[in-house]
Each structure stands twice: as structure tokens, then as C-alpha cells.
Amino acid sequence: MNFSPKPSRKQAAHEWRDYLRESNGLGGILARTEDHAKLKSALGRALEKLGLEQLNSKIEAGWRSGGQDELFLLVSSASIASRLQQTLPSLINELSKLGLKCSAIKVKMKPAPAAWEVKPRVSSNLSEKPQGFNAIAKKSWEDLLGKLAPDSELRKTVERLLQGKPK
Q: What's the rounded Cα separation, in Å, for the pair 90 and 98?
């Protein structure tokens, strides 16, 4: 049997990030993740300089998909959005001092999560087949049956329906 030779122990271990950067698919993901981390860090420092560091954990930041100079901030409450709207010019100025090219910032509210949830029915009746018509429905079908011509196809169908037989 031919076994591949063992790798030399003299080779140094590579940093895991090096492998991710060299990979075609994962390299792009890693680059975007690092950019997002830098953006979040810079936004945190800018908010700190403006005295709004308590809002940092309540803000999700991202660049507009078309260009890299319009920043989107997603917030969970209207009060945070209002506070940020009041300080946008100062925030843009602080971000530019930190090296982020940002010409505009859009503040958007995140949709609130649903306060309700769909639960399945807890009933054993779901597996049972319907028992047939109630008294009023049965009387209505019988009245219709009496009005139909004896040789009509509809009469035969209504008779089968009343007998509970499938087609």
C-alpha cells in the first residue's frame, strides 16, 4: 500500500485567518466581517465622543448596498432613532475624523417582533373524519332532492351525497 508521507514537523502552523483569506468564497466573507467589525468599533468610538455610548449596543450598522458612503443605522425604538437624528451632523463629523468616509446616515426602525405566536391545535378531533351533515343541512339537501328531475345527473349526485358514498 502506498501511504502519503507524513508532513514535516519543521513546518510552522499557519494562522487560520490566512487560510480564510486565500479561499475564494470564504475570503470575501472574512473581508466583509472585518469591515463590519471596524465600522462597529468606529461607530462606538464616535458615539462615545458624543456622550451616547449607551446606545452602541442598541444600534445595528451597515453600509448601503450600492455605495460605501451612505450608512444605515437600524434601531429598535423611536426614542433612539429620534436621539440619533438630532446628532447626525456631529456623528458624521466624528466618523470622518476616525477615517470613515460617510456622507449621509439613514436611521431606520427595525420591525418589532410579533407579540403572538401560532400554536398548533391540541385536539384529538383532527384525525377523525366528519360524521356527516347536521339536521338542518340534511333537510336542505333532501328538499333539493325532491325538486330535481328523477333522471337528472345532479339528482344522482345528491343521492350519493346524502348516502355518504364517494364518487
A: 12
Residues 80 and 153 in one domain: no
Contacts of 43 (CB under 8 A, 6+ apart): 56, 59, 61, 95
Model confidence pLDDT, tens digit, residues 57-85: 888 888 776 666 788 899 988 999 999 99
- 105 plus 24 within the same structural domain: yes
Please report the pLDDT score of residue 90 as a whole number: 92
Cα→Cα distances 148→132, 133, 139, Å: 22, 20, 15
Nearest CA among 151, 139, 153, 149 for reference residue 162: 139
- Tens digits of residue pLDDT in 4-53: 666 665 555 566 666 666 666 676 777 788 888 888 999 999 999 999 88
State which H helix or E strand residue 73 sits in: strand 70-75
Q: Give residue 72's domain range.
A: 19-109
Q: 1, 30, 23, 149: which is closest to 157 by C-alpha?
A: 149
56 falls within a domain: yes
Q: Tell me the whole-structure pTM to 2 decimals.
A: 0.52
**What's the CATH number where 38 sits?**
3.30.300
